[in-house]
Amino acid sequence: MTHPTTVPARLPGEWRIPYQYTIGTFASAFFDALREQRILGCRCGQCGRVAVPPKSFCEFCFIPVEELVEVGKEGVIEAVTVVTAPFAGSPPVPYAVAYVRPDGATSAICNYLQGVDLDLEDGLNEALRIEARVKMVFRDDPEGRVTDFWFEPLSPAQ
Amino acid sequence: MSGPQAAVLGFGQTRYKTSRLDVGTPELVFEAVSRALADADTELSEIDAVVFASAPEVFEGVYEPERWCLDAFGGVGKPVIRVHTGGATGGSGPLAAARLISAGVYETVLVVGLQRTSETADAQAVFTTIFDPIYEQDVQLNVITGIALVASRQMKYFGLTEDHMAWISVKNFTNALRNPYAHLQKTITEKDVKESRSLAHPLRLLHTCPRSDGSAAVVMTTAAKAKTKAHAAYVKGLGCAADVYRIGDRLHDDESDFAIPRAQAWAATEAYREAGITNPRRELDVVEVYAPFANLEIAYYESLQLAPHGRGIELVETGATAMDGDIPVVPSGGCMTANPIGATGLVRFGEAALQVMGRAGDHQVDGARLALATACGGIDQFYTAAVLAAEPD
Known about the structure:
The complex is a heterodimer. By secondary structure, chain A is mainly beta. In chain A, 8% of the residues lie in helices and 32% in strands. Chain A has one helix at 24-35, and strands at 39-43, 50-51, 57-58, 63-64, 67-71, 74-83, 95-102, 109-113, 133-138, 149-153. In chain A, strand 3 (57-58) and strand 4 (63-64) form a beta hairpin. The radius of gyration of chain A is 21 Å and the shape is extended. Chain B is of the alpha/beta class. Chain B has helices at 25-39, 65-68, 89-102, 123-128, 143-158, 162-176, 190-195, 223-226, 262-275, 280-283, 294-303, 313-317, 341-357; strands spanning 6-13, 49-54, 80-83, 109-116, 198-200, 203-204, 213-222, 233-242, 286-288, 370-377, 382-389. Chain B has a 9-stranded mixed beta sheet with strand order 3-2-4-7-1-8-11-10-9. A two-stranded antiparallel ribbon of chain B has the order 5-6. The chains are: A mainly beta, B alpha/beta. Chain A binds chain B through residues 8, 10, 13, 15, 19, 21, 23, 27, 49, 51-53, 59, 78-85, 87-91, 97, 99, 101, 106-112, 120, 124, 129-131, 145-147, and chain B through 21-22, 58, 61, 121-122, 124-125, 128, 133-136, 138-142, 144-145, 148-153, 156, 197-201, 203, 244, 246-249, 251-252, 258.
């Protein structure tokens, strides 16, 4: 009688599958506007909500949305964290990520928050507080990705 | 529910570990399923259908794990249904089974949960792929950053502090010491929690869950058949609900504040209505909540109506949810001490069943008659709630 080995092995494997994500005309318009340093949302013709980033329907009214609108290049922090542990593919730590509601919008958009002291020794910097105001800053060499812009404190960091 | 009441006959689970190197994935499933059948005093031939619950298969690296594991859960010749609601999968599985039983479609259903999170080296890289590729993946969101963002709002608007989170961690790790299946079994102090490695402010290592390999299974049937068995837990009420996909679309007013998960409240409200529960804090004896992060457990106290809106932290401050409190939460240690993701909701359900059967061993809540089990998935998007009782209707 033969018993199984007591030194179990592992076999290496890998998933490497390239994709081309189809994003549609609304998201394409959003990225085109980023190149012009503008932020686009969409306004529902029925409830008037302005979603940023835009999509071609309103989940509240469940009807198509047709109107793209420009929203403010400033906004307010709705949620924020400073990431201090590196994960696969993440930028060098520490870095800050925030959801910001642009002026004139009824939803929030996520991006990196830069230009702030990220030292956590004495707690979060005041500029990283929910309800603090930020501005959108745009790349000089846009790539057609959401990282063509980021947030920075509206008033200089303390 | 109309139709036959559903019941839980038995529960089987594996000892949760980072890696179960001694078994392949179907073999891990076989272990849980054979334990559940034995616990339920049920033969495989009595199983009319199987519900298979596993979440992102990117963890296992094998697409359609329900095919891979089919013979290991005894699915040959039977109807097999896979459910997938992210982390809530293990909560959705028994919910689907109970509905099939109450609809009279099948009499006896096996529910199987599986996840191996250690087959790939970086779980957070897997989690990045569950975010929107157009607007969110480029910002490298993952589960830890996503829940840190929730915590930032709980701190701003709901009085959450590091002290509250440390208390939850110590409570759950202490409970896990009495659960032989828990992955993390170590004594920790609030100081250990506060000095553990910072991951994403305000979350630290000891506020989070481990990555666990594991499988779990339950056998469910009609209440009429369950009455002929030595032990059973009876399904009193079920609920499930989902929320909008993008986090930014969940941040619009007090009703959707991305701090107190509203979809968990919707799911619980439905389950309480079916169960005829009007005062959950008073009527429930024990809660097995799916909260992989310390801050989330406190948010759920409010979603589950264990505390009034805005007062979840009071259950921490009064110690109400400790083992010796009036409403113990996760006597098993919960998913902060073992998290085989797609199976985790089923573990909560199975643990709640054990509690009302009086068979939870060293972590039994004395005299538990009515228990709640929940599950959450998809970064605060999918939720389930199930009320189990010691007695049939």
